[in-house]
Design a protein that fits this description.
Layout (H helix, E strand, L loop, with lengths): L1 H4 L18 H5 L3 E6 L4 H17 L4 E6 L8 E3 L1
Parallel strand pairs: 1-2
Antiparallel strand pairs: 2-3
């Protein structure tokens, strides 16, 4: 996903209704991604932490966080 935002600036797909999909320049202004994960185990946190570290190394200008134990409409635990 991050690689796509660093791409060639192609406009949204013509299949998308106007106004439904943000313009690529607006998406490129984003510099943070938060991942919501239903489960929450020590092994999962370790694996996600390693994946976030790889993303951070590949895209140093971005911020990546994961939220664990996400319940729709409820509370969750967050970790960078």
């Amino acid at each position: 996903m991050v690689s796509a935002l660093v791409g060639d600036g192609s406009p949204p797909s013509p299949r998308s209704p106007p106004g439904l999909v943000p313009h690529m320049r607006d998406l490129r202004a984003l510099r943070a991604l938060a991942f919501a994960i239903d489960a929450d185990t020590p092994a999962l946190r370790a694996a996600v932490g390693a994946a976030l570290a790889r993303l951070q190394a590949q895209f140093p200008d971005w911020t990546f966080v994961a939220r664990f134990g996400v319940v729709a409409g409820g509370t969750d635990a967050q970790t960078p």
